[in-house]
Amino acid sequence: MGIESDAIWFDGRIVPFADAKVHVLSHTLHYGMGGFEGIRAYTQPDGSPGIWRLHDHIVRLERTMHVLRTPLPFSIEAIEAACGEVLRANRMTEAYLRPLAFLGMGAMGLGARTNPVHVIVAAWAWGAYMGDEGLDKGIRLRTSSFTRHHPNAAMPRAKVIGQYVNSVLARYEANDDGYDEALLLDASGMVAEGTGENLFCVADGRVVTPSATNLLPGITRASVLEILHQAGIPVVEATLGRDALYVADEVFLCGTAAEITPVAELDRRRIGNGRPGPITRLVQKTYADAVRGRVPALAHHVTRVEPA
Ligand SMILES: Cc1ncc(COP(=O)(O)O)c(C=O)c1O
């Protein structure tokens, strides 16, 4: 599966895929200033595309750029509309959408303030991020030697392009050591999140997730909280050590790309009986149904797009 498509939205226009190019002296290429989002669209029961929590994602992009003191040159409504246009231009009903705001060419150096801010929205077909087997049987996780960003060094609540070097290095390390994904601890050594996912565990009959202090407040995390709430299952936000996960009955990761991915093993300790547990399965199934417009109580999170 490639990232090719027919067309990309670039600064207000749909352009052919091959024409969506930037100059090598674009500021973001050098210093990583900019923000991005990852969004999924799913085929709805009537065959048309529906985008999951589109508004929440674009609001987060706007907040990321606010944190960077680099306002978006387009309104939230315009970027939301762009996401629909990209799906239509590519005749896609199911896709991963990537809005990205970056600084273009102009001045160079860290103090440059005059560079144009560009925005693109691309779309491509992206199946199960951790593979179908990972979704079904659970993945192998390893605690990373890399620490999640401290808020005085980077901005964990913001989805900043340059900050993802931390995630990429952690992911490389985990994969090279034979694991599927990395678990990052925060600067105080407590569980933060995956390289592109938040985490939940079920322990002693309670569902627990790290509080969203030193991590990206995931939109899937918010969906999981809503699903559990609607199912009448209480959740607590707490500080977790990695050893709390070793003895948990269930652990799962959640993110737009990873959706709901069970964790079968952490640092060579089997989680529970090594198979996805009942709460993980419930959340996984409800989420899969909700994003496809099959859960009326969550249907308000789907933005319907007119098919091409
Ligand atoms: C570091 C990090 N944590 C968590 C998440 C999950 O966020 P979301 O559910 O909004 O995709 C992501 C993905 O964007 C991420 O990059």
Explained architecture:
By secondary structure, the chain is α+β, with helices and mostly antiparallel strands. The protein has two domains: 7-124, 2-Layer Sandwich (D-amino Acid Aminotransferase, Chain A, domain 1), CATH 3.30.470.10; 131-291, D-amino Acid Aminotransferase, Chain A, domain 2, CATH 3.20.10.10. It has helices at residues 27-31, 54-67, 76-89, 131-137, 164-176, 219-230, 242-246, 278-291, and strands spanning 7-10, 13-16, 34-36, 39-43, 49-52, 95-103, 117-124, 139-147, 181-185, 191-194, 198-203, 206-210, 235-238, 250-255, 259-266, 269-270, 302-304. The strands form two sheets. Strands 8, 9, 10, 11, 12, 13, 14, 15 and 16 form a nine-stranded mixed sheet that branches. Strands 1, 2, 3, 4, 5, 6, 7 and 17 form an eight-stranded antiparallel sheet that branches. Strand 8 (139-147), helix 5 (164-176) and strand 9 form a beta-alpha-beta unit. Helix 2 (54-67) packs across helix 3. The model has no long low-confidence stretch (mean pLDDT 97).
Describe what is shown at a glance.
The chain is α+β, with helices and mostly antiparallel strands and 308 residues long.
Task: Give the bound compounds.
Answer: pyridoxal-5'-phosphate
Measure the end-to-end span. 22 Å
Q: Indicate the structural class.
A: alpha+beta
Mean pLDDT: 97
Rg, alpha carbons: 19 Å
Q: What is the general shape?
A: globular
State the helical fraction: 25-40%
CATH class category label of the largest domain: Alpha Beta
* Parts with pLDDT < 50 across at least 5 consecutive residues: none
Q: What string gives the helices and strands in order? A: EEHEEEHHEEHEHEEEEHEHEEEHE
User: How big a fraction of the residues is strand?
Assistant: 25-35%
Helix count, per DSSP? 8
Q: How many β-strand runs?
A: 17
**CATH topology (level 3) name of the largest domain:** D-amino Acid Aminotransferase, Chain A, domain 2
What is the CATH architecture descriptor of the largest domain? Alpha-Beta Barrel
CATH superfamily of the largest domain: D-amino Acid Aminotransferase, subunit A, domain 2
